[in-house]
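Hello, quick one for you while I still have it in my head. A protein chain has come my way and I'm curious about its shape. Can you walk me through what the tokens say about the fold? No rush at all, and the record is pasted right below.
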Amino acid sequence: MNDGRLFLHIGMGLLAWALAGGVAAQPCEELPPVRAVSDRAGGCLALVPIGDPRMGAATLVVLLHGDGRGTLDQRQVDRWHDIGRTLARPDRNVFFMVRPGYHSPAGDSSGWANPRDDDYTPGNIDRVAGALRALRQSYRPDQVILVGHSGGAATSALLLGRHPGLADAALLLGCPCDLPPWRDHRNAQRGGGAPWTSSLNPLDFVGGIPASTPVAVVTGSQDDNTLPEFGRRWAELAAARGVKARFEDATGFTHATIQQWPAIPRRVDALLDDLSH
């Protein structure tokens, strides 16, 4: 293919993608307001709204992705968009949030993402907290629910303990909730590797979670990455401290396929029921 035909082919592909709803990667400061939120640390995090956000919706659901060496592709964004659609209701606003330092087709978020994924840092957790505060101020929900997978689940667990009351409930999918033994396990799987020295351990922050906070911790029974024991240990310690934490094995699901677990909407509904009683 000659250069002219190549550029035409690429241009037509980008046009078709844009017409289908794709968003070219760009700094989040350049995104429309509904597609970015201040992190209260001099930057902003990119957002993908699921549907049209509404002022005054009772519930705000925020979706947080797993680790990816600082990059998300369109397939990952689409997967989270599909999850968000299953959670959408007339009285809910649902946003997929790009974690700090990540580049994505939906926009780039401020912060720093380690190429080796050691980025559950105090600064990054606080950036997500700042973004949640800004979303609360903008949309005035009665309750905020976090839904996180893998590194997004660890981020959610850390937010619950490091910033108590900022989120009212959480669904943690495939959570590496006890960081040091999880890293030992992963390094053994890979034949070696350095410990993560920049990241906070979610297990260390359980004591900060308000006792009224309902948390569902779910790991696939076939998950050989974040083994069920890591989520179970976190849930047991949280429950012992009065948090409404429950652990569940998702039979037959792996670390990746837990994102297709059909019970995700029911578990979010159950968290809302817990909040109403």
